[in-house]
Design a protein that fits this description.
The chain has 331 residues and is α/β, with parallel strands linked by helices. The protein has two domains: 5-75 and 258-330, Roll (Luciferase, domain 3); 100-247, Rossmann fold (3-Layer(aba) Sandwich), CATH 3.40.50.980. Helix content is 31%, strand content 22%. The protein is built from nine helices and 15 strands. Strands 1, 10, 11, 12, 13, 14 and 15 form a seven-stranded mixed β-sheet that branches. Helix 1 crosses helix 2 and helix 7 packs parallel to helix 8 (216-227). The chain starts with 13 loop residues before the first helix and ends with a helix. The relative contact order is 0.15. Mean pLDDT is 91; it is low at 318-329.
Length: 331
């Protein structure tokens, strides 16, 4: 682990990002048993890895079957689990440095949206509130407390109460962050609530079988029409990561300096792309220094020249069959 963990949040250049990425790769190769096994299975020689493009990315599926850690668990460790249906195995992320998670989401939010104390935070996360171990609920709880606004809070299915609170906030001119899962925001927009320029509506994804799955563009068009606003923001995060990327309404996700997207060939998980065609999404999250910083997700996207990411969808089970055969050999 890094002697000075704050270095992650002090990155000022691509050169610093690359230097720290390579340092953490070598540290996690030695400290993370699961990651070492994966690197060895690929016959990658750590001493020959000289660029971030050459760093092996751990398939996200490992979080469903293994304890992916680079430091010992202790009394303050937290287990975050992903949402899943009864037929799915949830992912588990053991977070041994909760302070890094908090610093990542607080600094990340501030970088894109400014001081939390300027906002009232309304979190519409019904399915997440009905289970334990949600990293999204943990994050939103801290955002609510940091806002310090008396009307900030969580909402399960109290849409009438939420509607009244929104109307009151509209009259006050208060800046509001309304963050929620896709289907819950759609349910709220169906009530004919008209928002104004003081509201940021941020969807975090997730129909959870409650609504028909939609493309991001279709979802955003639905919510813009329902709420009568010009743009819908998005948060890109997941149980297995500690940092978040944000889209401020243009459909392109941008990262804080300690996080980076890389795309890979769709049918060859070990071959990185260097263009803007659709590929599998790999994420470097340097805040994840106590777990694994290099994650190969099951999302598909296009990487733009400025480093921003356009989400295009997800792999099907058949798309990742070859990768799963490799996983079975290690698991």
């Amino acid at each position: 682990m890094l002697k000075n963990e704050n270095r992650v949040f002090e990155i000022r250049s691509d050169a610093e990002f690359r230097e720290l990425s390579l340092e953490l790769f070598h540290e996690q190769y030695h400290s993370n048993i699961i990651y070492k096994s994966w690197v060895d299975a690929l016959a990658v020689i750590p001493g020959e890895v000289k660029s971030i493009e050459a760093i092996p990315f751990l398939p996200i599926e490992f979080f469903k079957s293994s304890e992916v850690v680079s430091s010992p668990m202790h009394a303050g460790s937290i287990r975050f689990t992903s949402s899943s249906t009864t037929s799915q195995t949830p992912a588990t992320h053991i977070v041994n440095a909760v302070h890094l998670y908090e610093e990542a989401f607080l600094k990340g939010f501030q970088r894109f949206y400014g001081n939390l104390g300027d906002y009232c935070v309304l979190a519409l996360l019904p399915n997440y509130l009905q289970r334990t171990g949600s990293s999204l609920v943990y994050m939103c709880d801290r955002l609510i407390r940091e806002s310090g606004h008396p009307d900030s809070g969580f909402f399960l299915d109290q849409l009438e109460e939420l509607e009244l609170r929104i109307e009151s906030l509209k009259k006050s001119g208060q800046k509001v962050l309304l963050i929620g899962v896709s289907y819950a925001l759609m349910d709220l927009s169906d009530r004919g609530i008209e928002l104004n320029e003081n509201f940021i509506v941020m969807e975090t994804g997730g129909m959870k079988g409650r609504r028909k799955e939609l493309l991001k563009s279709e979802l955003h068009a639905y919510l813009r029409k329902g709420f009568k606003i010009d743009r819908i923001h998005s948060e890109y995060g997941m149980t297995e990561l500690l940092s978040q990327a944000y889209s401020e309404g243009d459909g392109l996700f941008r990262t804080p300096p300690w996080m980076k997207f890389i795309t890979r060939e769709i049918d060859d998980p070990l071959q990185m792309r260097n263009d803007s065609r659709t590929g599998g999404i790999n994420v470097i999250d340097l805040a994840n220094s106590h777990s694994c910083c290099f994650i190969a997700t099951k999302d598909l996207g296009r990487l733009h020249s400025d480093g921003s990411l356009e989400l295009m969808g997800r792999y099907t089970d058949s798309d990742v069959r070859g990768c799963n055969l490799m996983l079975d050999g290690i698991g």
